[in-house]
Amino acid sequence: MATHTAFHSAQVSRLVPFNRAHALLYSVAVLAALHRRLAALLAPATLLSISVSLPLLLADLVLAFMWLTYQALRWCPVRRRDFPDRLALSVDPKDFPAIDVFICTADPHREPPMSVASTALSVMAFDYPTDRISIYVSDDGGSEITLFAFMEASRFARYWLPFCKENGIVVRSPEAYFRSSNGGDSEKMKLQMMYQTMKEKVETALERGYVGNDLVSSQEEAEVFKRWKGLPSHDHPSMIQVLLDTSKDTDIMGNALPNVIYVSREKRPTSPHHFKAGALNVLTRVSSTMSNGPMILTLDCDTYSNDPRSPLRALCYFLDPALSPDLAFVQFPQIFQGLNKNDIYACEVKRLYTINPRGKDGLGGPNYVGTACYFSRRSLQGTPSSTSLAPGANDPLSSESVLRKAHEVASCTYEPGTKWGSSIGFRYGSLSEDYHTGYHLQCEGWKSVFCYPARPAFLGDVPKNLNDVLSQRKRWCVGLFEVAFSKCCPLTFGTVKASLLVGLCYAHEAFWGSWCIPITIYGFLPQLALIYGIPLFPKVSDPWFYLYAYLFFTTYGQDLLEFLAADGTMGRWWSDQRMWMIIGLTSYLFGTVQFVLKKFGISAQGFNVTSKVMEDEQSKRYEKGTFDFGVESPFFVVLGAVATVNLSSLVLGIARAATMEGGFDELFVQLFLSAFVTANCWPIYEAMFLRSDEGKLPRNVTVISLALAGFLHCIGYLIFHN
Ligand SMILES: O=c1ccn([C@@H]2O[C@H](COP(=O)(O)OP(=O)(O)O[C@H]3O[C@H](CO)[C@@H](O)[C@H](O)[C@H]3O)[C@@H](O)[C@H]2O)c(=O)[nH]1
Ligand SMILES: [Mn+2]
């Protein structure tokens, strides 16, 4: 129960009784539908009936599995509120724990260094005792330009932090702030100029590919860059640079600045580096040799702070003695800036990032989603924080002994033979290291909290062309399968009921890629049968018809209601369900195949970093809400084929129904299905046949996808033509 002194409260969704009652009714319908399919399969068989019933049964089984497991996420969703004002009144800032902020970047060309530095500035300016903040940036790109951007940003911080605090600025990422607000007083103009100059310098360096002596501001800095010359990003020793030291560096008003430390861990072609999880583990260790803050905030390079009070919100939970012993992390939702009106690529990922976490929050906690998450260091480094790495009492950050230790723990030779990545730190073995890590922590008995304040605490970037989105989702799909098939954790969620519910949630999310099975089967099979007038579903005048109508409309209806209840719009929901189909046919299909190949050791894919930059023309198309195909991607071949098959079967199916007695009655479900898919495919037809801009489907892809559609029609002919 919330009292007026509690720092937080939680409320179970009022929809719970309704959800459970509906689940009961729906489960009867699912069983009836499965029974009907099974009966069809067991009836006297012909080649035709088997080649139809078997795939449809498989599709329905997967749908039933996904539906059943999803009910756990609807079982007990909660909404939390937190009260940072009460916290600020009753806890002395002197008692606030130190926070170590980890910012990961991996490629200066896909992740512009100045934006990364802007993210860092936004957290440096938190409303929090500045001498208790330490920023660690992990540069997996091993780029001197990123280091340069951070050197410049550290100098800029001397002006930026007092400016933000004195003027009560809320958006403290200079990039985001200057993007969204124009004009203003002379002080603001001065800072904007400074920022612009700095940005141009960094961009010059990026174009040249090195930091020239004309750009650096002191001999000391020039010396630093000398050490980098000729080092490839995949083969270099660890490089750690203390850029700001809170014990001596101050802003222009004389206030302390936070610690800022640049880290590029050692990379050798012969040592696995475990992508982002490896980077985060290095930061965990490096930070424990330096500031050793008990709280850790992990951020992707694009996730800037949009509310300087988020650390206080996290403290509302971490300082609650009833929660804190088991509390591993407080996850804020991933929310994005710059989406177009209807979010055509459904990059909000509402279900994954806001609806599901609320569902899990009622069952022990949401999963970790990689960014915007405050951890307790204890949960990552085992119980009572590994003191062996902690700095000596008075060792300054840049003392030789501290730096030696820091370099040592950032080297390739440190981890082998230790428990890092297996039972401590961020866990290895999945491309979705975030989901994997959260899963293990929860299995070990740690709890988590989903903190969703009205004002987004952090904002990030999304991929803005279709191929990037689909590649990103393919990586997620492979990563989730890797979690699903990773070494099973013992479920220790208290009661049997809790274990069952949490287990179902994980089963649902980890097997997310299995959506490809029903989506692909329902995307082609009934349509091909339609062309030959072969009904696969009950006719409208058959009472069984209502079973399918009920299943279809309540599924989509409930999805829509939940989407709207989570502040969605109709337009965005339409995009969301369309992308579910598109991703199922591409990312999940290819991802599933890739996962199987990887399992057999045939191929392995790394972490393809999503690009955070866009060409002008592409931006314009995105703003207008036009799909961007443009590249010759195998994903698009499948999309072109499904679009073609559905359109042709719709046309041929109508012709067939018109010439058959009672044709529309018999074929209604299949006609509806192909019309529905065709409506969803509208942007694909445009891209294939109507557009002439750069974002249209490349001619080659159109031709190959038409050929694939032709091939599928031949298969349909072989199966369905009597
Ligand atoms: O070897 C690597 C690869 C990536 N990154 C960083 O990881 C972050 C996420 O990469 P991004 O390409 O933006 O991936 P997304 O798919 O957009 O990210 C989502 O999915 C990832 C897991 O697949 C999570 O780690 C992210 O937090 C989550 O936002 C970025 O800051 C990268 O710089 C590294 O530090 N080292
Ligand atoms: Mn990202």
TrEMBL record:
<keyword id="KW-0961">Cell wall biogenesis/degradation</keyword>
<dbReference type="GO" id="GO:0009833">
    <property type="term" value="P:plant-type primary cell wall biogenesis"/>
</dbReference>
<feature type="binding site">
    <location>
        <position position="140"/>
    </location>
    <ligand>
        <name>UDP-alpha-D-glucose</name>
    </ligand>
</feature>
<keyword id="KW-0472">Membrane</keyword>
<feature type="active site">
    <location>
        <position position="140"/>
    </location>
</feature>
<feature type="transmembrane region" description="Helical">
    <location>
        <begin position="500"/>
        <end position="525"/>
    </location>
</feature>
<dbReference type="GO" id="GO:0005886">
    <property type="term" value="C:plasma membrane"/>
</dbReference>
<dbReference type="GO" id="GO:0071555">
    <property type="term" value="P:cell wall organization"/>
</dbReference>
<dbReference type="GO" id="GO:0016759">
    <property type="term" value="F:cellulose synthase activity"/>
</dbReference>
<feature type="active site">
    <location>
        <position position="434"/>
    </location>
</feature>
<protein>
    <submittedName>
        <fullName>(wild Malaysian banana) hypothetical protein</fullName>
    </submittedName>
</protein>
<keyword id="KW-0328">Glycosyltransferase</keyword>
<feature type="transmembrane region" description="Helical">
    <location>
        <begin position="635"/>
        <end position="655"/>
    </location>
</feature>
<keyword id="KW-1133">Transmembrane helix</keyword>
<dbReference type="InterPro" id="IPR005150">
    <property type="entry name" value="Cellulose_synth"/>
</dbReference>
<dbReference type="GO" id="GO:0030244">
    <property type="term" value="P:cellulose biosynthetic process"/>
</dbReference>
<feature type="transmembrane region" description="Helical">
    <location>
        <begin position="578"/>
        <end position="597"/>
    </location>
</feature>
<dbReference type="Pfam" id="PF03552">
    <property type="entry name" value="Cellulose_synt"/>
</dbReference>
<feature type="binding site">
    <location>
        <position position="300"/>
    </location>
    <ligand>
        <name>Mn(2+)</name>
    </ligand>
</feature>
<feature type="transmembrane region" description="Helical">
    <location>
        <begin position="697"/>
        <end position="720"/>
    </location>
</feature>
<feature type="transmembrane region" description="Helical">
    <location>
        <begin position="667"/>
        <end position="685"/>
    </location>
</feature>
<feature type="transmembrane region" description="Helical">
    <location>
        <begin position="49"/>
        <end position="70"/>
    </location>
</feature>
<keyword id="KW-0812">Transmembrane</keyword>
<dbReference type="GO" id="GO:0016760">
    <property type="term" value="F:cellulose synthase (UDP-forming) activity"/>
</dbReference>
<feature type="binding site">
    <location>
        <position position="111"/>
    </location>
    <ligand>
        <name>UDP-alpha-D-glucose</name>
    </ligand>
</feature>
<dbReference type="InterPro" id="IPR029044">
    <property type="entry name" value="Nucleotide-diphossugar_trans"/>
</dbReference>
<feature type="transmembrane region" description="Helical">
    <location>
        <begin position="545"/>
        <end position="566"/>
    </location>
</feature>
<dbReference type="GO" id="GO:0012505">
    <property type="term" value="C:endomembrane system"/>
</dbReference>
<keyword id="KW-0808">Transferase</keyword>
<feature type="binding site">
    <location>
        <position position="276"/>
    </location>
    <ligand>
        <name>Mn(2+)</name>
    </ligand>
</feature>
